[in-house]
Amino acid sequence: MYQHKTLTRSFSITSASNTLIRWANGVLEKRSLQLNDVNKDLQDGVLLIQIYEIITQLKAGRYIQQPRNDIQKLENINLALTLFKEDGVMFDIGADAVMKGNNKLILGLLWSLIRRYQL
């Protein structure tokens, strides 16, 4: 019985993850970019900034397009999260959780973006 619940939960998380990735890729395709793994591809903040610029049609300002260290990655992620918050997106995730690839919180962030910009 326990194994069935675990498999069901795992399937629903995978299904939700795939749905959110499809949404993000629908946005990112406008710049020929792609999100494959939410735990890894958002860790430097660049794709989050790209998503912001595409869906708001605003420039994010200066950011590090090829971050080389964790400090630069955190700066990019913080910039993206600040821009989304200033645009009315409500979420509960910090830059550190994004950089560490916290799947549950990252999926929550993507869901918040869909709620704000798509629904």
End-to-end distance: 37 Å
* Low-pLDDT runs: 1-11
By secondary-structure content and strand pairing, the structural class works out as mainly alpha
**Using DSSP, what is the number of strands?**
0
**Which band does the percent of strand residues land in?**
under 5%
Topology order in helix (H) and strand (E) letters = HHHHHH
- What is the share of helical residues? 55-70%
Task: Give the helix tally.
Answer: 6
Shape: globular
Radius of gyration based on Cα positions? 15 Å
Largest sheet data = none
Mean pLDDT over the residues? 90
Quick structural overview:
With 119 residues, this protein is mainly alpha-helical. 66% of the residues lie in helices and 0% in strands.
Characterization of the model:
It is a single chain. The chain has 119 residues and is an all-alpha fold. It has six helices and no strands. Helix 1 crosses helix 6.
SSE blueprint and pairings:
Layout: H1 2-28, H2 38-41, H3 46-56, H4 70-86, H5 95-99, H6 103-117
Helix pairs in contact: 1-6, 3-4
Task: Give a quick set of tags describing it.
119 residues; mainly alpha; disordered N terminus
